[in-house]
Amino acid sequence: MTGIAASATPLVRMADIRKRFGENHVLRGVSFDVRAGEVHALLGENGAGKSTLMKVLMGVHEADSGRIELDGQDIAGRSVRELLAQGIAMIFQELSLLPNLTVGQNLLLGREPRLAGWRIDARALRRDAQALIDRHGFDLRADAPVRELGFAQRQMVEVLKAVSRGARVLIMDEPTSSLSLREETQLFAIIEGLQARGMGLVYISHRMAEVFRVADRISIVKDGLLIGPLDSASTTPRELAQLMSKSTAGELAGKRAPAADARQRAEPVLRVRGLRTARKLAGLDFEVGPGEVVGVAGLVGAGRSTLAKALFGLLPDAAGAVEVDGRPVRAGDVPAAIAAGIGFVPEDRRHEGLMPGLSLADNLALPGYASRHGAGIASRGRADALFARYRDMLHIACRRGAQPASELSGGNQQKVVFGKWLATAPRLLILDEPTNGVDVNAKAEMRAAIRAVAAQGVGVLLISSELDELTAAADRVLLMVDGRISRSLTEVGAESELRALLQADMAARQGGIEQTSASAPRLEAA
Amino acid sequence: MNTIAMRGRAAIGSIVRDHLTYVIFGVVTLFFAVAAPNFATFGTAEAILRVTALVSIMAVGMSFVIICAEIDLSVGSLASWSSMLVAMALERGVPALAAPFVVVAAGALVGLVNGLLVTKLRIPSFLVTLGMLSVLSGLALTVTGTMPVPIVDDNYSDALWNARLFGLPVPILWTAAIVVAGYYLLHLSVFGRRVFAVGGGVTAARFSGVKTDQVKIWAFVLSGMTASLAGLMLAARSTAGNPSLGKGLELDVIAAVIIGGTSLFGGAGSILGSLVGAIFIGILGFGLLVMGLSTSIQEIIKGAIIILAVALNRR
Asked: Does residue B181 belong to the interface with chain A, where contact is any CB pair within 8 Å?
């Protein structure tokens, strides 16, 4: 995406911004600017200071020193409300829409057209909102309840809300983290449209591939300093990764152990035959060998997470044969799945993976507590020792085992969930989006950890929306479309190849559905 | 003297930060010791612990339920019902050694029903136990047409309330036994870790293999058992089964647990905290009584102090 409309004069310019919280110097002289009509991507690890920088721009935090200019005017020290009015808006990862209201009510929240006596003019509201939507050419209905919208559509509403309030600089924080492939394409089209209207966009993301797809310039925040901006056309992902982290060794090394043939000859750790659920899975057959990392690719909604949950016994309606080390596992029974040697790192870390208010040691020891007899003594010392072991093994950055899990960063939380299952000495580890929302370094560490586990003979089922992650980490990739495995790739090629195959399979599947539905009337006629 | 005061001030500072409830507890006790006549005596302490025994015992069971992020409103009327049940059993010649066990088993059954309704039918525990409160109090009133049933067996009343053992009244010993058992179950046993896990994140607990429904059902069963034990003691105290003996006790019990630092949202709490909460409520009632305040004024002050204690204890 090249910014044709991008002009050289910046819309917003931040110069030599410094910000300190107590003894912690978060920003140590950062200069950053956004031009009209460009997408300026902002990369950086969690805690590097990029969200602080954006909060300074938004007026949430006041900088200790430095200048912020909008159209050449100094705007430092203004409140969030004033800055919003000036045209600086942010779209957060957790969207701020009210799900119980309609699209129109959300768009015009707080500035609804009025009738006499403080009454809201519902008809005018719907009309104005629809006019706004149509003017920007979005595929939305003003009277649709937000509750019924998908994540991508909610994001559209959010963007529209900001634009309709006169936003000229839009900050997007990890906008694709919850989107499927097709929705991503939609979002990129919207971004292009906003660029063409002369808006300046700040695009925060951890995903290298999409940053290169969408951004004109790329800057990296590291240790409170800014690296860049770099022209996206003249740099490479590897160069960026090297700039971001001290070493990318973890990611580059550890790729694919040899002895793949030996693995295939060995008895599989997991054997699945005819796995189906009432709504999502349509009969799956596959195997995972000892020490093999099997990737699962597919769109959101293809049934990847359902597969994981069915294997782990979370779905009572799952049917079919699941065997671990040749022994059948009872369906719909989590304790049985764990006893058989299955571990599961779920997608939703905060709800499904962790108990945020409880201590790290308790979180890590929980599967053990679940399987033991209830009346037995739960030794604090043993739980602490267990935690210390996995803290050292996985390099979990924390103060002590008694610390609540909620205090850790996303990457470290994920390591705790990972460690919790390592502690059960699993035979098969199911990982559902294990690197979602963790920074580049933590991603590399996580991949190294996956490799290390596989090297011990544990089978790994790796579900990921990031295709480059699958190409980097998996020995074999299963493509899932519509609750079926459309193909199994033993030779994992480049990310673009994987994407093309996936799209081809999807198109074939949709074509198939249309054909069968088209043939039905003909049969009736005959 | 001066250094002691300074060291004391530093110590108090850290205690105030960590355990505000205990500080309020201390301040209120100190106030009564100074202001109320003859308050600071061994006799008073014994009397308060005795009066508090019922709430303390019920608070132990309630702690499990609240840490699971559920609530049990049926404990007061379950206590009434249990007092009726034991009195009628004794009246019909059931041996005094067997009757209490039957009644506690019946209390466990009530807890089981509560737990099954909450977990299997997914009805909020507030509603299930509110309904159960009504059912049990109605039942207790109906069985005898609102008449109390006298208990003539002195052995029974002695064992549960009147006797002294090792120089202490038995209600205090019963409290101690239940607190020790509760402490083991909640803070030392594997089951206790599961209770905290269910309250700390029920989905994460399920995803880790914890049978979360089973844990909740057990919590309700424990609450039912402690409530029926309290009912037995109530009956022993008044040497009769009375359908209105336990009325309103559930509020004191819940207040005790919350004052003791247990979170209504689950996942945090302690047995000793609940005990302190129960004793706190006891001291408050007793202190205001000996200061000669009318019961209606007492209620107002008690309510205000409970709200204050909980407000300050929130983290």
From this structure: no
Q: Is residue A346 part of a domain?
A: no
ipTM of the complex: 0.80
pLDDT tens digits, one per residue of A179-235: 777 778 888 888 888 888 888 999 988 777 788 888 999 998 887 888 878 888 888
From the list A352, A358, A375, which residue is nearest B191 (CB)? A375
Shortest alpha-carbon distance between residue A336 and chain B (Å): 8
Tell me the CATH number at A446. Answer: 3.40.50.300
Q: Which of A10, A370, A373 is nearest to A200 (CA)?
A: A10
> Does a structural domain hold residue A2?
no
Low-confidence stretches of chain A (pLDDT < 70) are: 1-8, 22-23, 46-47, 93-95, 245-265, 510-526
In a domain, A202, yes or no: yes
Three-state SS for A62? coil
- Residue B61 is predicted with a pLDDT of 96
Backbone angles phi, psi at A356, to 5 degrees: -60, -35
pTM: 0.74
- Under 8 Å between Cβ of B59 and B222: no
One domain, residues A519 and A430: yes
Assigned CATH class of B47-313: mainly alpha
Tell me what pLDDT residue B293 has.
84
Q: Do B205 and A355 touch (CB under 8 A)?
A: yes
Contacting residues for B221 by C-beta, under 8 A, at least 6 apart = B108, B111, B112, B115
Chain B residues in contact with A343 (beta carbon < 8 A): none
Query: Which element (helix H / strand E) includes A447?
Result: helix A440-455
Q: Are residues A311 and A455 in the same domain?
A: yes
Chain B nearest C-alpha distance from A370 (Å) = 5
Which among B303, B158, B129 is positioned nearest to B233, based on CA atoms?
Answer: B158
Percentage of chain A beyond pLDDT 90 is 13
Q: A336 exposed, middle or buried (CB, 10 Å; 0-12, 13-18, 19+)?
A: middle
- Exposed/middle/buried for A445, CB within 10 Å: 0-12, 13-18, 19+? buried
* A430 occurs within a structural domain: yes
Looking at the 3D structure of chain A, how many domains does it have? 3
CB within 8 Å of chain B, chain A residues 468-507:
none
Question: So where are chain B's domains?
Answer: 47-313
DSSP state of A110: T
Please say which residue of A406, A423, A440 terminates a domain: A423
Whether residues A39 and A181 fall in one domain:
yes
Domain span at residue A198?
10-248
Assigned token pair, A23: 């003894």
- For the purposes of burial, counting CB atoms within 10 Å of the CB of B142, is it exposed (0-12), middle (13-18) or buried (19 or more)? exposed
pLDDT of residue A188: 87
The whole-number pLDDT of residue B191 equals: 93
Nearest to A355 among B189, B192, B204 (CB): B204
Does B203 sit within 8 Å of A352, measured CB to CB?
A: yes
Same domain flag for A316 and A184: no
Q: Which residues in chain A have their CB less than 8 angstroms from residue B268's CB?
A: 357
* Rounded CA separation A378/A357 (Å): 19
Instruction: Note the pLDDT of residue B6.
Output: 61
CA gap A188, A182 in Å, rounded: 10
Weakly modelled stretches of chain B, pLDDT under 70: 1-19, 313-315
The one-letter amino acid code at A306 reads T
Residue A248's pLDDT is 37
Q: Which residue has the tokens 């108090």?
A: B12
Same domain, A72 and A131: yes
> Last residue of some domain: A219, A248, A277?
A248
**Nearest to A126, CA basis, from A156, A146, A147, A106:** A106
Q: Are residues A461 and A333 in the same domain?
A: yes
The reply to whether A393 and A432 lie within a common domain is no
Element (DSSP H or E) covering residue B181: helix B170-183
